[in-house]
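JOB MANIFEST
job_type = single_chain_structure
chain_count = 1
residues = 61
[input]
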Amino acid sequence: MIFFADLHIHIGRAGCGAPVKITASPALTVEGILEECSERKGIQVAGIVDCASPPVLKDLR
């Protein structure tokens, strides 16, 4: 079985607007990343590097 994956994606801002990774684009939110991966790029596995940040955990819940 073959999967298309990007295993190193940084989040720029949390859904609440709080900065997560200052040097990453503010357009890189959890919602934006998942939408881009699934609808535009055909990526089935996304590794979000900043997923342990409290505002990002809130977005994931």
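[summary]
Helices lie at 30-41, 54-60.
The chain has two helices and two strands.
exit_status = 0
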